[in-house]
Amino acid sequence: MQAPTSRFSSARRRLLTTSAAAAVAVLRPGAVAFAQKAMVAAGKRSAEELARDEDFWWNVREAFTVDRTLINLNNGGVSPSPRIVQDTEIRYLE
Asked: How far apart (Å, rounded) are the C-alpha atoms in residues 24 and 21?
């Protein structure tokens, strides 16, 4: 059996490695381009106008892989990651 400190050290190392992979995914050119495209699409419109823009929100929705048939009322605890982060983490773990 491993000593508790080495077991926690290993878990911490995995957490840091996974977090680093997620950070790299967000900084990929595709992720930055998506954010820039969203800002351009938002333009100088008011929050009320943007809230009613279905095309804008469709693009945001497509960035996530959540199941559209479920209503998730716990995003504060679940915090779904964007598709690009999930794809990068999967590639990293393979």
From this structure: 5
Q: What percent of the chain has pLDDT over 70?
A: 60
Q: Is 2 left (phi over 0), alpha (psi -120 to 50) or beta?
A: beta
Residue 35: domain span: 4-93
Structural domains counted in the chain: 1
pTM over 0.85: no
Q: Which two tokens stand for residue 51?
A: 């809230």
Amino acid 17 reads: T
Give me the amino acid identity at 91: R
3 by DSSP, 3-state: which? coil
Single-letter residue type at 1: M
